[in-house]
Amino acid sequence: MKLIYRVLTCPATRILRIPTLAHGTLSGHREHMVRQLNYHEMREVFTRFQEASPAPEGELEHTNAFTLLVAVALSAQATDLGVNKATRALFAIADTPQKMLALGEEGLIQHIKTIGLYRNKAKNVIRLSQILVDDYGGEVPNSRAALQSLPGVGRKTANVVLNMWWHLPAQAVDTHIFRVGNRTGIAPGRDVDAVERAVEDNTPADFQTHAHHWLILHGRYTCVARKPRCSLCLIRDICLSEDKTP
Ligand code: SF4
């Protein structure tokens, strides 16, 4: 049956997308989900991603763990491009928690007011900077629990920081990875937690560190939301989507 996808962000359930029938009736039946790709298919998918891009990198500009943490926190419901435009000047003068506190909330707002939800984000960045100074000696802690205890830092932000700065195989699931995982069979799951587990459980160990960036870049540039570029896709013959474009 042909499906369309509706993107939802419910803070309570963390469900990003529910499969809906083509005429728009909410369904969410499990039988519509594609199967999980098997081990050999997963190895082949990531082997191809690796050959095409041996060292994939995230696109959020940063100079240290603190600026990465702030950039990721600012990127919620914003584009990396928009965040980079704002943070270039910001990080030139405030690349540590101490300097961020010296800049202050109003000063920070002047730099980030082009980014959505900037008032709330500014409040959180100032509060987390204070906690880093008070409780962590001005350093960014590198456990998921400690990161998630900071204001405005959820599991996804923590996983991005753990993956990008400490190169841990932490799998942050954003809207791109959620879509790609479900469409292709790389990591099917009904909510972000299920997709995160599917990536962790099914990605061969030697591909775990870069899996996050390969999947995000694949979703951002090839397997895009509305009209995926299937004719250019490296994994077209393995992908299980029933809605490939010619
Ligand atoms: S074949 Fe199309 S739907 Fe499948 S992964 Fe590639 S771009 Fe996405």
Any chance you could write out the topology, listing elements then pairs?
Elements: E1 3-7, E2 17-21, H1 39-52, H2 65-74, H3 80-93, H4 97-112, H5 118-136, H6 144-148, H7 155-164, H8 175-184, H9 192-202, H10 208-221
Antiparallel strand pairs: 1-2
Helix pairs in contact: 2-7, 3-4, 4-5, 8-10
The structure holds iron/sulfur cluster (SF4).
Give an overview in words.
35% of the residues are buried. The protein is elongated. The protein is mostly helical and 246 residues long. The N terminus is likely disordered. It has one domain: Hypothetical protein, domain 2 (Endonuclease III, domain 1, Orthogonal Bundle), CATH 1.10.340. Helix 2 packs antiparallel against helix 7, helix 3 packs across helix 4 and helix 4 packs antiparallel against helix 5. It has a two-stranded antiparallel ribbon with strand order 1-2. The longest helix is centred in the middle third of the chain and has 19 residues. The structure holds iron/sulfur cluster. The site of iron/sulfur cluster has 13 residues, from helix 8.
